[in-house]
Amino acid sequence: MSNKVSIFEQKIHEAVKKVSSNESPTTLFEPIGYILSLGGKRLRPLLTLMAADLFEKEPDTVIDAAVAMEVFHNFTLMHDDLMDRADVRRGNPAVHKKWSDSVAVLSGDAMLIEAYRQLENIPAEKLPKVLRLFSDMAIDVCRGQQYDMDFEQRTDVTEAEYLKMIRLKTSVLLASSLQIGAVLSDAPAADVKLLYEYGINIGFAFQLKDDLLDVYGNPETFGKKLGGDILCNKKTYLLIKALENANKQQLQQLEMWLSKTDFDPNEKIKAVTAIYDELDLKTISENRIEQYYIASLECLSAVDVPNERKEELIALSKSLMYREK
Fold first, then answer.
1. CA separation for the pair 38, 175 (Å, rounded)
2. How far apart, in whole angstroms, are the C-alpha atoms of residue 133 and residue 180?
3. For the domain with range 3-321, which CATH number is right: 3.30.70.260, 1.10.600.10, 3.40.50.300, 1.20.1260.10?
4. pLDDT at 88
5. Mean pLDDT value across residues 221-237
6. What's 30's DSSP letter?
7. What is the pTM of this model?
8. What is the three-class DSSP state of 247?
9. Residues 68-90: what's their mean pLDDT?
10. Quick one: pLDDT at residue 195?
11. For a Cys staple, 104 with which of 47, 82, 130, 276, CB 3.0–4.6 Å?
12. CA distance 7 to 204
């Protein structure tokens, strides 16, 4: 990790820490401070600061927008955990488990409002465009989440449908973090577009890696219990490819586990993972991730700034490609 990225991370940490501090009622704001304190990769705000750096702007130029991205992202996590009935977030109890469902709903709503509040200090001449981009991103994420929930009731989700869903739910937030950082840095329109597409491709690789780690990751580093997607029949890339590639016997087994409501969790995880192994889906998924990784680097290569200014983003891309959590 370079010294420059460490400085970015420190700025993000200091700015995020101010959100919801010493406000009342504590039952509304304490969960906000809690989920933000759990850390995570701070990837979205880091991308916003990196976009500014790419065009030789100071981090303070975009820090408010960066914090807005991080607060919005954590708002989605708070509500996602509730909707998915996920008990653990970053190795700690999810907000709805530590407090209650109602607290997770209302504190999440407050976080969404706080995300928009963070944009108040953006220069007036740029605020309308940034607000439009931010709102477009926010509604796309909601659309993606609804597709994700709709897919839970289906067994015929196609790869194309799944990729559309993760583009909206995951990729758009990463792409918009870069896009808004570039817009605030007065980047040329062509470069803003290229950075957005870079973010879209990195987002695809990021989510497919998440799907992979949920089954094949190290539980000590992943931060969540392995097999959670299998237990809730989430239509991940692995499951969609399994349903597509399975032979008759494997398909019968998968359909049986998908329809079962009373089962031993460890048995289900073991049985479905065994089918994934038989179909070599780990390798298939890794190859797909690499395709998106290469596509992202091609977009970044076309951005019209000196190559040395792209080194931080290239290093970040590699770290996401080979991450363990």
1. 23
2. 7
3. 1.10.600.10
4. 84
5. 83
6. H
7. 0.91
8. coil
9. 92
10. 98
11. 82
12. 27
pLDDT tens figures, 145-181: 999 989 988 889 999 999 999 999 999 999 999 999 9
Give the per-residue pLDDT at 223: 59
pLDDT of residue 62: 94
DSSP string, 229-255: HHHTT---HHHHHHHHH--HHHHHHHH
Residues in the chain: 325
pLDDT in the model for residue 228: 86
Element housing 57 (H / E): none
pLDDT of 78 > 90? The answer is: yes
Dihedral pair phi/psi, residue 235, rounded to 5°: -80, 85
Find where tokens 């897919």 sit: 151
Closest CA to 230 of 273, 280, 263: 273
Taking the C-alpha atoms of residue 317 and residue 178, their distance in angstroms, rounded to an integer, is 13
Three-state SS at 210: helix
Residue whose entry in the numeric block shows the structure tokens 């931080």: 312
pLDDT over 90, % of the chain: 76
Residue from 191, 175, 188, 180 nearest 61 by CA: 180
95 burial level (CB within 10 Å; 0-12, 13-18, 19+): buried
Cα gap 43→11, rounded to integer Å: 13
Joined together, the tokens standing for residue 179 give 């896009």
- What's the CA angle centered on 64, arms 59 and 70, to 5 degrees? 100
